[in-house]
Design a protein that fits this description.
Oligomer: single chain
Helix content: 25-40%
Strand content: under 5%
Structural class: mainly alpha
Order of helices and strands: HH
Largest sheet: none
Radius of gyration: 13 Å
Number of helices: 2
Distance between the termini: 11 Å
Number of strands: 0
Shape: globular
């Protein structure tokens, strides 16, 4: 995820998907879906790989 056009695929059960997106994004107070995406917190996902039951293929990116 070091590049703007990094692609990934994930196979997540429904119970994990909800937690994944809660960690990745933030709360949205408006009653409609936003027209522009909000800030994504990939660092929070990377810090919670085990609780989210996510496994990276290959080496973790070094920053």
């Amino acid at each position: 995820m070091n590049f703007h056009f990094t692609r990934f695929i994930g196979f997540l059960p429904a119970t994990v998907v909800e937690n994944f997106f809660r960690v990745l994004g933030g709360p949205w107070a408006e009653p409609v879906f936003p027209h522009l995406p909000g800030e994504l917190h990939v660092e929070r996902v990377m810090a919670k790989l085990d609780p989210l039951d996510l496994h990276l293929c290959g080496e973790r990116p070094q920053r």
